[in-house]
Amino acid sequence: MKTTTRSGRMCLALGDKVIDVERASGGRFPADPLAVFERWTEFVEWGRATTDGPAASAGLAGSPSPTPRQVFAIGLNYREHAEEAGLAPPESPATFTKFATSLTGPDTQLALPSAFVDWEAELVVVIGRRAEKVVAEQAWRHVAGLSAGQDFSERVVQSAGPVPQFSLGKSFPGFSPTGPVLVTADEFADPDDLAIECLVNGESVQKARTSSLVFPVAELIALLSSVCPLLPGDLIFTGTPAGVGHARTPRRYLRPGDEVVTRIEGIGQLRQTCVAG
């Protein structure tokens, strides 16, 4: 099953057609995506049995979970990315947040606040059932689905101060696009092994498989939920592969006119066009 949003309303993606959930369900489920995530088990049963319905309003797709209460992000979660940063792979997940006001949809203009904005393609997990002190073996039961994301990063702000300011440097408006759809885990042959790629102006700059994550999805959910409950609609940005611009010689950052495409197998792609901020 695949979901998306249009104008902030929860929708089902049925092949080439996108249907409005509230209207298709006769009001059984609300338009508010967060309210649907709160009833995810019931919604999935209905959604899998639904084959048609009223078309969603025209417009660009939005973030599959546009109003999460918590957004977690994981640093250095691919061994090669840790190595290009000159660091050892972490012994526990390097966790920060991306503030929710940075969230946006899959096809957008990215306003560059400076000349030091970098790309980071990421697999994004959307929580569908409250997870608290969950063991890894049961973690996937709490996942609504997977989406694609970008963890755009302003590297000067990120590194300013006596300690790194990861959350600020990664939370400018538009710095957290996700989409184009949320895909339930049963749609994949192996949800832990998906191809991920980032292209800048058609050049492949990042390419990996999510099976290379230092801490895979189930372990992340277990470790995070051991500290705080994960709530329906919450997002986990799982980390980026090697190939970021900041680690290159010479360093490379995004410029107005650049196009960033992020692809994940079985999910689809994001497309951001960079403009002056």
From TrEMBL:
GO terms for molecular function: hydrolase activity. Pfam families: FAA_hydrolase. Keywords: Hydrolase, Metal-binding. It comes from the Bacteria. Residues 71-273 form the Fumarylacetoacetase-like C-terminal domain. The keyword NADP does not apply. Belongs to the FAH family. PANTHER family: FUMARYLACETOACETATE HYDROLASE DOMAIN-CONTAINING PROTEIN 2A, FUMARYLACETOACETATE HYDROLASE DOMAIN-CONTAINING PROTEIN 2A-RELATED. This is Fumarylacetoacetate hydrolase family protein. It comes from Amycolatopsis minnesotensis.
